[in-house]
């Protein structure tokens, strides 16, 4: 009878060069989202109207940012 050979899992290596552009993109989008949720109103407003504020209004309260 032949002996069974146990399969040894080989870890997958992902080079940092492949992850870095995606990590930078995710961080940039996260910071932009955080800005619009936290500071897009009043004197620091990028847009003149309150459409962005009203769009993220519930998210502001969910994340405990006061707005009124």
UniProtKB/TrEMBL annotation:
Keywords: Membrane, Transmembrane, Transmembrane helix. It comes from Amycolatopsis decaplanina DSM 44594. This is Cobalt transporter. InterPro entries: CbtB_put. The lineage of its organism: Bacteria, Bacillati, Actinomycetota, Actinomycetes, Pseudonocardiales. The chain crosses the membrane at residues 19-37. It comes from the Bacteria. It holds the Pfam family CbtB.
